[in-house]
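REQUEST FORM: STRUCTURE PREDICTION
Request ID: SP-0412
Submitted by: Lab K.M.
Chain count: 1
Length (residues): 92
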Amino acid sequence: MSVLNEGNGFDCIATAPCIITMYDEATGLPLTNADIKEAVDNGADDELHVMLGIVETDEKWWNDIDAVTAAWQPYWEEAGYEGELVRYPFRK
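STATUS: Completed
RESULT:
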């Protein structure tokens, strides 16, 4: 997850395995990218108020980088990602 900084660049603020969720502010229901795309495609995006929830996972997740890579590999393959695992420091 990145945010636009003052220099018009992007700063990474969280990466997997941080837990990042999206939910509808009005209903509290979880949202997917498909839900948001559908709202935009149907012109209902002005009614949708998306909130993000981010929870930092314990550093133990990163103690064995090979185990983390193996655990996430099936998901990356399903998404078509063939690159390497890139680690970023989590900034609060």
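NOTES: The chain has a mean pLDDT of 77.
Reviewed by: T.R.
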